[in-house]
Design goal:
Oligomer: single chain
Number of strands: 21
Protein name: T-complex protein 1 subunit epsilon
Family: Belongs to the TCP-1 chaperonin family.
Number of helices: 18
CATH class of the largest domain: Mainly Alpha
Subcellular location: Cytoplasm
Shape: globular
GO cellular component, one term: chaperonin-containing T-complex
Strand content: 15-25%
Organism: Pristionchus mayeri
Length: 553
């Protein structure tokens, strides 16, 4: 007993987290410090708590699924309002406190980072899997058995998707536009869906290398300006920057332009060490002014001698330099951001010049046309650089009634571009409207009958979870969800047609191929894999310790 007491004393003294106390009979027991400040959940109670939190998040997202899905308004603590239908944005802006709910947020982010689309569906599917798992737990099935069964069912679903997938002609622009329209169908921009789908496809094809199946999104710039209509949105084969000529009397339009791209400031050089300049008389001040003027003159001469007809400067310059630039007929733009500088260099085939002494004719970029555009009755102006030698760099210029609409249009276009990019990388497709999920559900249900172990219950639960996607689509479209899904399942089995889905837009046919509702195979497979992985992780957590104040949220 003495050896035990000594070892316990030593152990917890080192850890500094407990106190050893003896009762009246001399028996030792340990009091853990700050035990009263922690809340502990264990076993099935912990798992059910997690399922409840995850389902709450999934139920929030459920009504945003599909072409008839509703938008969410999210208000930040600063009062910034976001109205969106995009799953990743909703999850990111939600003020989530629960630790498991944060896992669902990360799930949506993972889908967005890897695929760019399907962020709502993956959360809804994970919520449905957890809801089914809760019923299995109530029947006394061990969480590990449920997780293993889900893994097996997911594998069977992925094999089914591979078998059902069709090849897609990436070179066919019209078919690509149809796919982009599927992504844009549930967005706020769906009243001009064809125009936005064409912009998404053309912008991706402009920067895509079909030989290597690579798409460089960095060459696509999105710029927005409040005003006008969504229909005024356009794709510019060039770069638009939210800047103007530095002097109001500089020309508003230049043709056959040679561009000097400068990251050095138009100002006299400064010592690198700490210094102080004493100006004691008017003569000293005049000398300083003359020196500054001579320096500006030298810099402008270097730019002019190189053959440049437009100077784009990353830094600002004062009114003196601005006046001299105008006097020497050298148009200039100041405070151009770093990303824009890089895009302009790529588009014009120019080199970024860090020092005036290094500026040569070979480092100049070229553009056929540089012009200022104005908007409405305001003084807002922007600069457009067009007819560039490298036409791979493009700008999507979005107009809208307010900032919220422009931001949502940007998110919608990004999702559509991601769909087109995924098709360029992997040209296999499945059909939307819940058709792919229902086809997987039918196949997994067949395999469940062949399994002798307890995992067959998890298989059937996986089937019910897959059916939650077409059920949510039907519910959001104002249809009777249970009747619609039951009829759809019967039709798929009777006709042996995996292309049948929910007629959410009431077009009179359930054939998603005829309705041209197309989804990328890679997106659907990623949804199933990510949702199953997260559910497996949640089911295997059986002990949680959190501070009391955090648990009360």
């Amino acid at each position: 007993l003495q050896e035990l007491v000594y070892s316990l004393k030593h152990k917890f003294k080192m850890a500094g987290q407990a106190q050893l106390i003896f009762d009246e009979y001399g028996q030792p027991f340990i009091v853990m410090r700050e035990q009263d400040k922690q809340k502990r959940l264990t076993g099935v109670e912990a798992i059910k708590s997690h399922i409840l939190a995850a389902r709450a998040v999934a139920n929030t997202m459920r009504t945003s699924l599909g072409p008839r899905g509703l938008d969410k308004m999210l208000v930040s603590p600063d009062g910034d309002v976001t109205i969106t239908n995009d799953g990743a944005t909703i999850m990111e802006k939600m003020d989530v406190q629960h630790h498991i709910a944060k896992l669902m947020v990360e799930l949506s982010k993972s889908q967005d980072a890897e695929i760019g689309d399907g962020t709502t569906g993956v959360v809804v599917l994970a919520g449905a899997l957890l809801a089914e798992a809760e019923q299995l737990l109530d029947r006394g099935i061990h969480p590990t058995k449920i997780a293993d069964g889900y893994d097996m069912a997911c594998k069977a679903s992925l094999e089914t998707l591979d078998r059902l997938a069709d090849q897609f002609p990436v070179e066919d622009r019209a078919r690509l536009i149809e796919t982009a329209e599927t992504s844009l169908g549930s967005k706020i921009v769906n009243r001009c869906i064809r125009q936005f789908a064409e912009i998404a496809v053309d912008s991706v094809l402009s920067v895509a290398d079909l030989a290597t199946r690579d798409v460089n999104f960095e060459l696509i710039k999105m710029e927005g300006k409040v005003g006008g209509r969504l229909e005024d949105t356009m794709l510019v084969k060039g770069i638009i920057i939210d800047k103007t000529m530095s002097h109001p009397q500089m020309p508003k339009e230049l043709k056959n332009v040679k561009v000097a791209i400068l990251t050095c400031p138009f100002e006299p050089p400064k010592p690198k060490t700490k210094h102080k300049l004493d100006v004691t008389s008017t003569e000293d001040f005049k000398k300083l002014r003359e020196y500054e003027k001579e320096t500006f003159e030298t810099m402008i001469k270097q730019v002019k001698d190189s053959g440049a007809t437009l100077a784009l400067c990353q830094w600002g310059f004062d009114d003196e330099a601005n006046h001299l630039l105008h006097h020497h007929s050298l148009p200039a733009v100041r405070w151009v951001g770093g990303p824009e500088i890089e895009l302009i260099a790529i588009a014009t085939n120019g080199r970024i010049v860090p020092r005036f002494a290094e500026l040569t004719r070979e480092k100049l970029g070229s553009a056929g046309l540089v012009r200022e555009i104005t908007f409405g009755t305001s003084n807002d102006r922007m600069l457009v650089i067009e007819e560039c030698p490298n036409n791979r760099a493009v700008t999507v210029f979005i107009r809208g009634g307010n900032k919220m609409m422009i931001d949502e249009a940007k998110r919608s276009l990004h999702d559509a571009m991601c769909v087109v990019r995924n098709l360029v990388r992997d040209s296999r497709i499945v059909y939307g409207g819940g058709a792919a999920e229902m086809a997987c559900a039918v196949e997994v249900a067949k395999q469940a009958d062949k399994i002798e172990g307890i995992e067959q219950y998890a298989f059937r639960a996986f089937v019910d979870a897959l059916e939650s996607i077409p059920m949510a689509l039907a519910e959001n479209s104002g249809l009777a969800p249970i009747d619609t899904v039951a009829a759809l399942k019967a039709m798929q089995i009777a006709q042996n047609n995996p292309r049948l889905g929910v007629d959410a837009l009431c077009k009179g046919t359930n054939d998603m191929q005829a309705q041209k509702v197309i989804e990328t195979l890679v997106s659907k497979k990623e949804q199933l894999s990510l949702a199953t992985q997260v559910v497996r992780m949640i089911l295997k957590i059986d002990d949680v310790r959190v501070p009391n104040d955090e648990h009360e949220h």
